[in-house]
Amino acid sequence: MTASTRIVEVRRNVLKANDEIARELRERFERAGVCVISLVSSPGSGKTAFLERTLTILRDRGARVAALVGDLATDNDAQRLARSGAPVKQIVTGTTCHLDASMVRNALEGWEPESFDFLFIENVGNLVCPASYDLGERARLVLLSVTEGEDKPLKYPSIFNSADVAVITKADLAEAVAFDTAAVLRNVETVRPGMEVRLVSARSGEGMEAMAGWLLAITGIPKPSAPAL
Amino acid sequence: MHELSIAMSIADAAAEEALRYDGTRVSAVFLRLGDLSGVVKDALLFSWEASCEGTPLAGARLVIEETRGKDLQVSGLEIEDL
């Protein structure tokens, strides 16, 4: 070190730019009265099937729902989700392995968040990178299918720590793959004590009505008339 | 593998902080990296040089302090007078 070299202290969050956009989004969503739920999981764990069924159930119960779906390529998922009748937009990320807050903000152009009760954001299938990016959501669900094995929470603690609820999917296959529910509950508890875990099957419908009920409960729909600000 | 975009964010953040120290260049960036940040140290170091190329940070070292929790924070800069 030469005499002209010195060290200066700074405290600067590397993802400050993302976090600021996420904070703006969260405030905007709150003002609009829309409950934003994001979904993360590995590829093939059933995010789209789960979401398609959830959108349909919520619509049947009178909720106004919409979805944003992120993928590296194709709009296949958006086409599948559109079958539910809900407005859906695809975010094609190119080579980017996660969604960030600015992608969500850009995708919202042309939509009025006020016109929805729920907005779902399906992240790119990836249990690593999405953990670092706040999207301004109210709650994050991490999905884990029974075919992936019980130790996923131990292998990917960051994503489980960034999420609010763990949803175990493909429950209809649990017996066929000798899935050990007690073990997965233990593993979730190890990485995220107190985390809520739900068991569902989008195919058989098991647990799906209860999941929709949970979502409706956190938004408080039917909404009480909001006091004027 | 989002370490490249994280490395670019670190370089951006450091370059912006360095603007406060006129007439200097950054020779090292100190980073606090938590075990729950979702970012891998080796992959970050691997991406660092490429991220700094052609920016005011070119040639700067990245010094990583491993911490517990979700830290992903530039904690200091080593600067040299030009």
Key descriptive features of the protein:
heterodimer; A: 229 residues; alpha/beta; 7-stranded parallel sheet; 8 helices; globular; B: alpha+beta; 3-stranded mixed sheet; 34% helix
Number of strands of chain A: 8
Tell me the Rg of chain B in angstroms.
12 Å
Strand proportion of chain B: 25-35%
Tell me about the largest β-sheet of chain B: 3 strands, mixed
What does the overall shape of chain B look like?
globular
The secondary-structure class of chain B comes to alpha+beta
Order of helices and strands of chain A: EHEHEHEHEEHHEHEH
Task: Outline the biggest β-sheet of chain A.
Answer: 7 strands, parallel
SSE-based structural type of chain A: alpha/beta
Tell me the distance between the termini of chain A: 58 Å
**Amount of beta strand of chain A:** 15-25%
| Major interchain interface with per-chain residue totals | A-B, 29 and 31 residues
Count up the helices of chain B: 2
The helix/strand series of chain B, from N terminus to C terminus, equals HEHEE
Secondary-structure map:
The complex is a heterodimer of chains A (229) and B (82).
Chain A: E1 5-13, H1 16-32, E2 35-40, H2 47-60, E3 65-71, H3 76-82, E4 88-92, H4 101-107, E5 118-122, E6 139-145, H5 152-155, H6 157-162, E7 165-169, H7 181-191, E8 196-199, H8 208-219
Parallel strand pairs in A: 2-5, 2-6, 3-4, 3-5, 6-7, 7-8
Helix pairs in contact in A: 2-3, 2-8
Chain B: H1 3-18, E1 24-34, H2 41-52, E2 61-67, E3 72-81
Parallel strand pairs in B: 1-2
Antiparallel strand pairs in B: 1-3
